[in-house]
Amino acid sequence: MSKRPLNLSGSTESNGFPALTAAVLCHQSNEKIISMTQKTTKTIYWIGIVLTSLWFGASGFFELTSNPVVWDITVQLGYPPHFIYLLGVAKLSGVAVLLIPGKLLRLKEWVFAGVYFDILFAFGSKVAVLGFAASLDAIIAFVMVSVTYLMFRKLYAFPQPVEALS
User: Fold this and answer.
1) Contact 43/31 with Cβ under 8 angstroms?
2) What pTM value is reported for the model?
3) Which one-letter DSSP state was computed for residue 21?
4) Rg over CA atoms, the chain
5) Contact of 159 with 129, CB cutoff 8 Å
6) Looking at the domain assignment, is residue 18 inside a domain?
């Protein structure tokens, strides 16, 4: 059996077979590509989880330990002290959930949502009070968490809900 790619364009090659535009790889090559893609996805995901955990873990720790730099900026943005403590607890709890491999997948969805809310509120607050230049960290965090979340969804595809019968 020939292992040459097929051409799906509909034209006919000299041997009489329909030509196909998309190259179809032999089964063995396709398996290697799939496993490499899965490995790459996992690598990007775990790098993102580690970076996100370091970022939000440090932030949560500094909020709970009343780090003057973090507290001064947060109070300057208009947030009350009790909120800063709650934010610190939420961030550290979320980091703990993110670092558990392959479990608590629905809870991880909620953690990602919470992280997005934190980033969006930080961005909005910084733009309104400190100016756009001060929000660069929120933009970087948004991109980092977005890539991580996309890899999460690719690794752990959730079943689609069954639509109601009409």
Assistant:
1) no
2) 0.73
3) S
4) 24
5) no
6) no
